[in-house]
Amino acid sequence: MVGTKKLRRKIRYTILYRFVQFLIFISTSLPRVTWLRFCGFLGKIAYMFAAQTRRLTVKHLTMAYGKEKSQAEIRKLSRKVFEMLGKNAGDILRASGTVDTWDDLQKFLVVHGYENYVAAQQKGKGVIFLTCHLGAFDLQVTTMAVRGLNPNIIGTPLKDERLNKLLWGYRNKHGAIAIERGRETFRMIKILKSGGSVALLIDQDTKVKSRFVNFFGMPAATPVGATVLAMKTGAIVVPTYIYLGNDWKQHMHILPEIPITVTGDDEADMVYNTQILTGFIEQQIREHPEQWVWMHERWKTQPGEEIA
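RESULT FIELD:
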């Protein structure tokens, strides 16, 4: 039974790996907008057949917007989530085969607020890019890398070694450094102390040190890594986000730093600052709800189950 399950998983991942390779191959042979429309169509197809993922998406949208939107509006938004996920994933896949320089990236991506990074970097304390799983979020790392910032990004390895190698190879392609989650603390501190930069995502419920803060009106176990690193090193927290606009361009925003409060009460400061950072993320999701990963079980962990 175990052997059969393992074989099925291997076959499933092999098919997925070959499919991703095929998508990367054909993505460069089509005009970008045509390609994104096709990927959006694939997202709509996925909505019809991925019953479990669709159910989770509707459930979480209802939890977040149940008092603001009707069920018909929520279902319409859930369909849009799948469509935009397809389009943004398509842009990431295409970029893996077409982007080698800053000029390549500027053909379809606009950076707003780069001066905010410059101001933070000039303080010489290191920079923590705070971002979230909104839009084509991996393109932010590509942007930082081709601009010569050499960002370090923490990520959880994928279950399939081939897919993981493909993803991390893309992230490392232009000078970014992918670091496996769980092995990062001391390395991150050293990088920030030397004035370097790291990119952190704190908008998912993962098995890392977390605290409960308010997210869409509900307590959500939230990683405190960004807060802890900022408190320990004095690094500047610079929020960023990206979304696909109606003009078919990716818009990456780099905002002014978010000040970190340090009173000497580490626990209270950790919770307070993590709430402030989470509030920023919620604000961006509310502006572009169709481009966040609502299928993720953001409120899965219950009080007492979080990693202290």
